[in-house]
Predict the 3D structure of the following.
Amino acid sequence: MARFELVVVGGGMVGMTLIAALQPAIEQGLGVTLIDPAPQPEQHLRASPSFDGRATALSAQALQVFSALKMANFEQALSNIQEIEVSDRGQAGLLQLHARELGFQRFGAVIANADLGALLWQKIHTLPVHWRFNSQVAKLSPKQNGHSVTLADGSLLHADLVILCDGGRSKLHESLGFSLQEKSFQALARVATLTTAKAHQGKAFERFTELGPIALLPFGQASTLVWTVPQNQIDTLPNSPTSAIPWLEQRFGQRLGRITGLSDWSEYPLIERQMATTCSHGFLALGNAAATLHPVAGQGFNLALRGLARSANLINSQYDQDRQLPSFSQLNAMAESIAHDQSKTAGVSRELIRLFQSSAPLLRWGRGLGLNSLDRHPSLRQSVALAGMGLLEDVPTLSPG
């Protein structure tokens, strides 16, 4: 049976970023294997479903994490967010945030998932990691000094520590007896690429409507559209890009002029998940495997990166000191801080949904008043910006790789 100090289950955005963040410990001898069902990457391209045609919004804090990883050509792959507009359809309230007016270079940036995957693989593919692509973990079995990892082909590995970051796509938590709390928002996210008559000039939009939020994010010369669709309304809504364009223009307005093009969309169910136990002896869950959020606040991957950074810092520091992984008490204390962050961030997302989906007249009036109040007070606007950028959370800087 092959033995490893660390087994990383999942080679998507969180798994690959974790490997990059653990470069200091890996180069000092940390024995790591990564297991992923996707094919072996070729020519720096990732085949994982995490690196599909979608794009991801990175907060300023997330950009600091990636800056520490020193990935070649990372900045060139970004579409910066310089301005944000938040509005509520049917109400006068409007919040405008300008990065430079508030003293920031940018609020964040958007990157194509495929580009991020290629950059991560280019960064890590030469590290002394045992890559196990085209492999799937069938079962995790707790042992006295770690876990026995059973692969789908029947082969066995031993891991002192298993970090699960497979995006929540597996049922491995069940083999450990851990429950998963799940809440469906009874809605889908339609994700597409949209072009407009006017250039976005780095401006992002969040438009709250009676059916849910519509977001536009700068993405190269186009914009990424994230359109929330209630499941009980899906049969009454446009079902093709051609019919969707006038519908979107009516609800979103012509903030960037007429919509000149809309790609076919992909649909994803909106579900909030929380693993009841994210840390046990020899086990840690990160990213969507631990918690999945509604995308209304755009904080899912940014939340995952904060947990990842905490984990990598602890492992790198401990391995540098005595060539050992952190103890259970150290990992558990860290996992509790991650869980607190997850709970707080999930609460903000739920409150935004509750506040902006209500049709109660007083609440709708209060929303408009609140947006206008924020827009008129620079200190309040800066607080909102700092929260969205993730800069109110205390996350240590990653050790340079």
Remarks:
- Residues 2-51+113-182+271-362 form a domain with the FAD/NAD(P)-binding domain fold (CATH 3.50.50.60).
- The two ends are 31 Å apart (CA to CA).
